[in-house]
Amino acid sequence: MSEAAAGRVGVAEIGVTGLAVMGRNLARNFARHGYTVAVHNRSFAKTASLVADHGDEGTFIASESMADFVASLARPRKVVIMVKAGGPTDAVIDELVPLLDEGDIVIDAGNAHFPDTRRREEALRAHGLHFVGSGVSGGEEGALNGPSIMPGGSPESYAVLGPILEDISAKVDGVPCCTYIGSDGAGHFVKMVHNGIEYADMQLIAEAYDLLKQGLGASAAEIAEIFAEWNTGDLESFLIEITADVLAHVDAATGQAFVDVVLDQAEQKGTGRWTVQNALDLGVPITGIAEATFARALSGSVPQRTAGAALPALAGMFDVTDRAAFIEDVRLALYASKVVAYSQGFDQIAAASAEFGWEIDRGAMARIWRGGCIIRARFLNRITEAYERDANLALLLADPYFTEAVAAGVPSWRRVVSQAALNGVPTPAFSSSLAYYDGVRAARLPAALIQAQRDFFGAHTYRRTDRDGTFHTEWTGDRSETAL
């Protein structure tokens, strides 16, 4: 520890290490709310820049070394880590731990994979430290002006940290978009699923845009007006709002619609993929999120798409005789598909909560996603109300409000998906969402045949509809049935 650190009296109420854009804005958010904020970055130039550019927003204590940074914090120390997930986060934790004391709190506010958070929480608990894995959604603007915050960890750590996080979070109707999620990795798990829903939402919007473009021959500017109109109704959301803005934007270099000069290859950072992988582990069907993730992968599959360009289309031509009716069909199909994506995401949260003993309140998740975050939307109020009516709701689609709302759009949904197929327009998220809806409502599925096949080639057994028990048929013998 330096002489400066040894002589420093800790006064900062919270500290942020890692001052790239998100960390910088989060530190400013704390300062704007009246907290004394310790700031640190591996490169001191970023620390100095923050203080020079925004020192008038509040009280910052800048440190060049990690030791000085820790020494500037009041106890129990509260340290927010905002660095790249994975190895860099572990490196910062390894540097921090020897400098901390029992009861101090380390907060990873990046997009960490929740198994890493569970591992880190266990390791730091052995040192008498609290480790909080916290999802933070809202991007750069949210970090500065009020994000949706999803902290996990121990209840004791939230008792200390929670009031600060609630203070800087977004507010909807005066209610903070922050709540305690659950132990160890619960916070980062919920943020992961949030991002998975975000993938589905964005893909569905993109498919709606493509259908309007190809079905109507509409320009980007015309479709921007449609999305702006949609944003005044049930579809009101941050993503619909920015879609209208993006589609209305004109490229300065070419004079063309901006969306038409952007390469059609969507990238991803991994949270969607983690969501799908975990859903497979839990056995939860999140078909909309999975198809959205695969759609991004397909968009970037250049060799396959180059070869595929020569495949015959065998498609017809859209024959839209009623423009307004077609737009309304797409709107209703989009709304229904979005409800399916959220329903599947909340099912995944429920399954993980049971698996890991997190006791996550799904209604509270919907409530804190109403503001600050990327998937904030008007109908999250309806989801909050659904879980208030029944905290153990087995299927969001089965809530009376959503049953009625989605049912009203089913004819439009079917028309949109069938027209897309007939005209060769890929709608993987629309189509898979409709297939899920039909599957989950079906009185009987063809899975009976699959189970019979499994018993035939692998003696995997089956159950019957007319009596209890497990059975096996001697398929290669006399085909007699044995109760096991």
Major sheet, described briefly? Answer: 7 strands, mixed
Strand order of the largest sheet: 3-2-1-4-5-6-7
Give the amount of beta strand, in percent.
5-15%
Instruction: Give the CA-based shape.
Output: globular
Low-confidence stretches: 1-7
Distance between the termini: 69 Å
Q: Output the radius of gyration.
A: 26 Å
What integer is the average pLDDT?
95
Number of helices: 21
- Quick one: how many beta strands? 11
Q: Roughly how much helix do the residues carry, as a percent range?
A: 40-55%
Alpha-beta classification: alpha/beta
Tell me what you see in this structure.
It is a single chain. With 484 residues, the chain is α/β, with parallel strands linked by helices. Helix content is 55%, strand content 9%. It contains 21 helices and 11 strands. The strands form 3 sheets. Strands 3-2-1-4-5-6-7 form a 7-stranded mixed beta sheet, with helices on both faces. A two-stranded antiparallel sheet has the order 8-9. Helix 3 links the parallel strand 2 and strand 3. Helix 9 crosses helix 14 and helix 14 runs antiparallel to helix 20. The longest helix has 34 residues. The protein starts with a helix and ends with a strand. The N terminus is likely disordered.
